[in-house]
Amino acid sequence: MENVVVTNFRAVPAIPPGSNYLSIVSRVRADYRETEDDIKLHSLSLIIKSEVANEAVKSMMVDDLMYSEVTFYKTFIPEVRKLTDLSFTPRFFKTFSTTFSKIIFEDLEERGFVDVNSLLSLDFEHCRLYIVA
């Protein structure tokens, strides 16, 4: 998919403002054709986490946290997937930034997952799934 032609895209906040102090989380929905001559229109929805532009906030280890998150999705999650058939984690797309200023994921909403209030605890079944994984 090197010659993809994006015909339309729309970016909206993926979470309410203030829900994540260290990054901006956007949902980007794109319509594309796999080649210029392709008549079939495809759609894709991604979640993009970008570091905040506020230098005071960035100085609070944002780069280290983003690096840790990239390492988690590139190293830990593939190993978990080898041990279980659960596919509850988003597909991680490689970014070509050396500063880890952006992280790109599959939008799990496309598979029927919903966001939960992060201030609420997990229920027993979700805790059990975490331990099993």
UniProtKB/TrEMBL annotation:
It comes from the Eukaryota. This is Uncharacterized protein. It comes from Graphocephala atropunctata.
